[in-house]
Amino acid sequence: MILYLVAFVSYLFLFAISPELLKKIAVAFFVFTFFVVAIPFLNSESNNYNAYCTFLTFIVFMSFLVTQNKFKLDINVIYLFWFLLSVLVNYPILEFKINYQNYIFPITTLSLYLLFISFGNYNIIRYFFKLIIVMVIIQSILGTMQSFFGFPIFPNVTNIFEGNRNYLAFIFPSISSLVQQGTGTFEHFNELGGLLSLTVPIIFGWWFYNKSKTRLAILLISSLGLITTFSRGALLGSIVGISFMLILNSNKKVMNKIVFISAFALIFIAWKYISDYYSMTQNLSIRYDTWTFAWQYASEHPLELIWGYGIYFFHNNILGLQDTITNLHSGQLQILLELGIIGITLFLSSFIATIKKAIKEKHPVSITFVSGIIGFFIHQLFDNSLFSYIATIYFIFIAIVQLSLTNEDIQNLFSKKGTN
Question: Cα separation of 233 and 230, whole Å?
Fold first, then answer.
């Protein structure tokens, strides 16, 4: 009790002295949680730092809301409230102590998104962006080392995965197809792949608009981290995101057509290798069987599809039967089935509106962050991280795009005097 009182008094003191510092503390604490599991002495099994992060970000946001009386309501806020409502319905507040883990993502994401969209400024966005760059560098280095050398392996994280995933082996048969897949400090390589599909296109744009050697080195490190996850969806998402950026930066319609034709020609030429690759790894067919099984179940009760079956319904109650995998492995399908037509309509409307805004503005910051948003969206067609902390970063990036017109300072984010 005394400890909580000291913490509360310290919080009031910090808020009185420097409210901006509290924003940075909340953001830093959020990014720090990605590394907690890898630090044994923090006892992350018995101390849920994600819950502490949720509480802190919520309190920081509420403090700003009460003192500055400013609140932005948009489609992302409505979507996240709908998500939280689904949690409340399926995991009632009376069972909060048992199921509080389910509340962590929507409350943290709501708090941080609203903190950025309502009270964001150039300094906090630049600070957040720097933290993300540092995190991506560390995760990429860890993933690369795990893939090449098999270490470090963290006691609270699952073992490194091995699979017939080596891209080059399907072009050069003499190379072994069996590889170790980097996970960083995550439990699964797809989680690291999700993070990098979201950030590699953005780091590419960060370098593209200011071609410094430091930024190029960071781009190479993060790209290697992406490759050594051997996440096909992450690689595809990054390529699509970067292609989107390059096309928007081309003012010549002829050049755009050449890019599209070249892309289709490349896919046509490489199709044999792509089909052989997926046939050998077999993951796509397993996913397809799972999607079909889940959709058939859901279509038997079409009315429930309007509001959804509730979060994690299929993972907890349906999947794992009839030779299906235990996760839907499609974030968009998971939203449709578990948050319903209402949920998927809100989510897709947000995604489309953000892309339209970037296309209309044609500003480097908007285009770059939307390329990462697209990369993650593509990756999520084959994975299930839209209900995780990586999706929180996705929504913060959307907030940054939304702020790009109203906050002129953000326009300097990629300049030489900005983040270096």
Answer: 9
Q: Residues of the chain with pLDDT > 70: what percent?
A: 83
Q: Angle at Cα 356 formed by Cα 364 and Cα 206, nearest 5°?
A: 20
Instruction: Output the average pLDDT for the chain.
Output: 84
Q: Identify the weakest region by mean pLDDT among 104-113, 116-125, 251-260, 282-291.
A: 251-260
Q: Are the beta carbons of 315 and 327 closer than 8 angstroms?
A: yes
Answer for the pair 56, 104: CB distance below 8 angstroms, yes or no: no
Give the DSSP per-residue string, 29-45.
HHHHHHHHTT-GGG-TT
Residue 191: DSSP 8-state = H
The region of weakest confidence among 90-94, 127-131, 220-224, 251-255 is: 251-255
AA letter at 89: V
Q: Give me the pLDDT at residue 350, please.
A: 96
CA distances from 271 to 170, 187, 263, 380 (A): 12, 32, 12, 22
pLDDT score recorded for residue 144? 96
Q: 338 is written with which tokens?
A: 């578990």
- Measured in residues, the chain has a length of 420
Contact 247, 259 (CB under 8 A): yes
Nearest to 363 by CA among 419, 417, 412, 416: 412
What's the longest Cα–Cα distance across the chain? 69
- How far is residue 174 CA from its own chain's centroid? 36
Gap between the Cα atoms of 368 and 366, Å rounded: 6
For 157-166, write each residue's pLDDT tens digit. Answer: 777 788 887 8
Distance CA 117, CA 26 (A): 15
Instruction: Give CA 41 to chain center in angstroms.
Output: 27
> Are 183 and 191 spatial neighbours (Cβ–Cβ below 8 Å)?
yes
Using alpha carbons only, give the angle 395, 30, 71 rounded to the nearest 5 degrees: 50
Structure tokens at 54: 């949720």
Kindly state the DSSP code that residue 318 receives in the 8-state scheme: I
pTM of whole model > 0.85?
yes
Read off the pLDDT of each residue in 149-154 and give the average, rounded to a whole number: 89
Helix (H) or strand (E) holding 337: helix 331-338
